[in-house]
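My current task is to audit a protein record that another person submitted. I need someone to confirm that the token line plausibly describes how this chain folds. Take the sequence as given and treat only the tokens as open to question. This is what I was given:
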Amino acid sequence: MGQHYLRTYKAFVLEEVKKNLLIIGDLTGNCAACNELGINAYDAKACPQCGTVFKYIASRRLETHPSERFQLARRLAEKRPDLLLIDYLDYQKAAGDKAARDFFSL
């Protein structure tokens, strides 16, 4: 019987995630804290610009290639077992909601 990846939900402090998030695209990643580009997503333990230590990883590719979602999640888990994979769209939505609340002082 093989292992399967299932999405689960857990509450996070958004600022903590942003402060330690590596966002990856097709080829390289960027630091969510300082927006440094061109980070090697499979080797970098910390941002070369601001020095933040990565704890979380999110992939834009999971959203643009939905048929490959779980293969990509498996590959990330194998290559970066030190990082917790979070859903990029969930992160984006939460960050947008927080920015709107901060803007309107709610």
